[in-house]
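Help needed: design a sequence for this.
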């Protein structure tokens, strides 16, 4: 094989750090890693918001969701566990890093790091990081080093998200990224190339094992109506019913396709020899199963062609790549109206039951708001048996036009807001992308919000959520499509 240059590797999307022996691990070659040096010159930029200020502070409860203190931060990094993020109101638990624009009023009692995130932490700041957010620091670390290690040092994360935040994840074609609004290039402050020795690689495998066990064992934790609903979710093309065993078999197929996808993502190939790295041992040695892998390839869609008045939970997806069902997760109803789906009265939440092959995916739909102050949301990484997902939102309100939120077992947190342009009423093509720990929301083919969050992983369904509505048809959706993210390259299958 000819020796590949760095330009070749960038084209291939297969990056590794210099000096790392990757043969025998399913990887091919190694290259110099200059990404950090290239980015180091651009950590702090004076832009439209002036020189930003970084603080550490608990989140603020604002009527029905968690937000940055004052709701005016231009960058948010949530360091809470999912347990803490799921609490609805009360005394805030945990904390986050927030960047504020020049001249903004900062929350009282904050740990203020100023605008230079390359400087070395003081002893008092290290003590504050530990007491406020439980972050263990190292002497001589910069502020940015500490933020990075808060996601990559095993002492600072929990792969399940139960006791601490989850870590950053990595893939061959994307490496690992960290966004913090107001700093870096368009908020990008860390961008590092893929290598199997990178701490994010170990973290990614740890999260994968936790998610695999959770999804494999989920039906064992359900009973009654919850189990019945989980089973119904695997029906296709209007089947009246399926058995629990059929649902378990279909669930395994989904997980095996997910394994094939992660082989692609982390090794650039697929093969039986990679199973021990990606599947918990009890599901390989016969203790609980002898799981395998399948080739991933999933696109799902719904054109909502049906009889007027049919409730969405009674509708079977139509058009190419369709046939799946919908579940009413909570709130009021949605119904078919002239081959669109609309809110029937007020806020509703629905989950698709068609499953993708990866939690790296995008969701898009034509969304129309026809009243002032209503919110049309599309959801990605929707959990199979919980009200948990990421949501991209647009509204006709000029002061709160685009938002990216996460919802953990029914509790929202606002992660990013962009009020740069009022979309007004009418139809917009909205799209939410999830890549490892990167989230990006597009509206009318323009990127509106890009940020980092690690909380929600391992979920491979989509959703719709019209919010703050009062009249039927305030919000309509059409042409839903959700699909696994392409790896971006034509990987060779080195066996």
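Sure. Designed sequence:
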């Amino acid at each position: 094989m000819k020796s590949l240059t760095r330009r070749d590797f960038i084209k291939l999307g297969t990056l590794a750090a210099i000096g790392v022996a990757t043969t025998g691990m399913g990887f091919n070659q190694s290259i110099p890693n200059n990404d950090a040096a290239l980015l180091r010159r651009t950590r702090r930029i004076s832009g439209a918001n002036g020189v930003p200020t970084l603080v550490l502070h608990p989140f603020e409860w604002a009527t029905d969701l968690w937000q940055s203190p004052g709701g005016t931060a231009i960058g948010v990094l949530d360091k809470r566990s999912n347990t803490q993020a799921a609490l609805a109101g009360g005394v805030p638990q945990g904390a986050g890093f927030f960047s504020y624009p020049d001249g903004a009023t900062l929350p009282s009692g904050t740990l203020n790091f100023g605008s230079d995130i390359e400087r070395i932490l003081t002893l008092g700041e290290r003590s504050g990081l530990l007491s406020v957010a439980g972050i263990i620091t190292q002497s001589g670390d910069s502020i940015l080093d500490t933020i990075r290690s808060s996601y990559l040092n095993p002492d600072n994360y929990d792969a399940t998200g139960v006791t601490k935040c989850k870590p950053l994840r990595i893939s061959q074609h994307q490496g690992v990224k960290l966004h913090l609004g107001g700093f870096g290039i368009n908020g990008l402050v860390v961008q590092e190339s893929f290598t199997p020795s990178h701490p994010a690689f170990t973290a990614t495998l740890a999260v994968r094992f936790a998610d695999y066990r959770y999804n494999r064992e989920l039906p064992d934790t359900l009973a009654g109506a919850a189990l019945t609903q989980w089973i119904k979710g695997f029906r296709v093309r209007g089947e009246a019913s399926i058995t629990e065993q059929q649902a378990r078999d279909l669930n395994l197929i989904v997980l095996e396709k997910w394994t094939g996808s992660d082989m692609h993502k982390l090794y650039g190939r697929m093969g039986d020899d990679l199973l021990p790295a990606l599947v918990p041992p009890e599901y390989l040695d016969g203790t609980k199963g002898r799981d395998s892998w399948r080739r991933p390839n999933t696109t799902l869609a719904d054109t909502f062609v049906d009889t007027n008045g049919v409730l969405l939970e009674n509708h079977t997806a139509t058009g190419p790549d369709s046939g799946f069902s919908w579940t009413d997760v909570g709130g009021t109803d949605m119904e078919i109206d002239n081959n669109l789906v609309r809110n029937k009265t007020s806020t509703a939440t629905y989950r698709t039951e068609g499953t993708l092959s990866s939690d790296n995916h995008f969701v898009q739909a034509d969304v129309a708001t026809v009243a002032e102050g209503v919110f049309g949301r599309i959801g990605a990484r929707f959990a199979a048996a919980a009200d948990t997902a990421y949501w991209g939102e647009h509204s006709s309100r000029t002061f709160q036009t685009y938002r990216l939120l996460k919802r953990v077992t029914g509790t929202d947190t606002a992660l990013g807001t962009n009020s740069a342009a009022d979309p007004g009423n009418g139809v917009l093509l909205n799209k939410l992308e999830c890549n490892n720990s990167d989230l990006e929301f597009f509206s009318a083919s323009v990127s509106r919000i890009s940020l980092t969050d690690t909380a929600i992983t391992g979920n491979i369904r989509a959703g719709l959520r019209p919010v703050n509505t009062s009249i039927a048809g305030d919000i309509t959706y059409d042409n839903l499509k959700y699909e696994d993210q392409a790896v971006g390259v034509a990987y060779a299958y080195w066996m």
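Residues 202-283 form one domain.
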